[in-house]
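Quiz preparation item.
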């Protein structure tokens, strides 16, 4: 019987990434029951590690189970590491809007991608990385942490229809494709979330089995 690990996220992309990475080890990833009814914590830590621990500890106080939380995002060298921990709120933080209204209205991911392209105009280098930090907590205490990264470059225009977040702009040199152009299986082998989860597994097995 598969062990169950509850994740403090309802993001389908993250749940899919974690599930693919965990399935090979007989672990079932499920969203934390009742997650939508729990007020979200204020993610005010300056690092991915700090926010991952904060979320894991916070949500683990609402359940007797182990809770997995992550904080992840994009670090662009020419932007001195931005958007970093604010990756999901990059355009919103700057109150940025496109010069021309789009129909239908842009999604959050689309706005973030367009804002990144605007910020990157004329800048070099275009090197960047995805970073993910995972934390596992129980009863308000962090028990495990792990980290994963993947290196790439920021494209000048989006490519591909898969993935989410900044994937259409994130170029993978070893695959000669964007993160949005590779299969789920390929993404598992090299994504920051997959790498972070595989780094977590040796410690996680002792807690789940």
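Solution:
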């Amino acid at each position: 019987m598969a062990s169950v690990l509850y994740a403090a996220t309802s993001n389908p992309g993250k749940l899919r990434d974690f599930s693919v990475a965990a399935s090979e080890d007989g672990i079932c990833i499920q969203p934390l029951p009742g997650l939508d009814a729990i007020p979200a914590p204020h993610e005010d830590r300056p690092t991915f590690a700090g926010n991952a621990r904060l979320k894991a500890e916070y949500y683990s106080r609402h359940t007797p189970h182990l809770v997995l939380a992550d904080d992840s995002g994009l670090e662009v060298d020419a932007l001195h590491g931005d958007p970093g921990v604010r990756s999901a709120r990059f355009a919103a933080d700057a109150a940025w809007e496109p010069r021309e209204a789009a129909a239908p209205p842009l999604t959050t991911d689309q706005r973030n991608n367009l804002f990144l392209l605007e910020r990157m105009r004329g800048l070099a280098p275009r090197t960047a990385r995805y970073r993910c930090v995972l934390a596992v907590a129980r009863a308000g205490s962090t028990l495990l942490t792990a980290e994963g990264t993947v290196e790439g470059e920021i494209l000048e225009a989006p490519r591909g229809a898969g993935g989410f977040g900044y994937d259409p702009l994130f170029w993978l040199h070893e695959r000669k494709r964007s993160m949005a152009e590779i299969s789920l299986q390929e993404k598992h082998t090299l994504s920051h979330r997959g790498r972070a989860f595989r780094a977590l597994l040796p410690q996680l097995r002792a807690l789940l089995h």
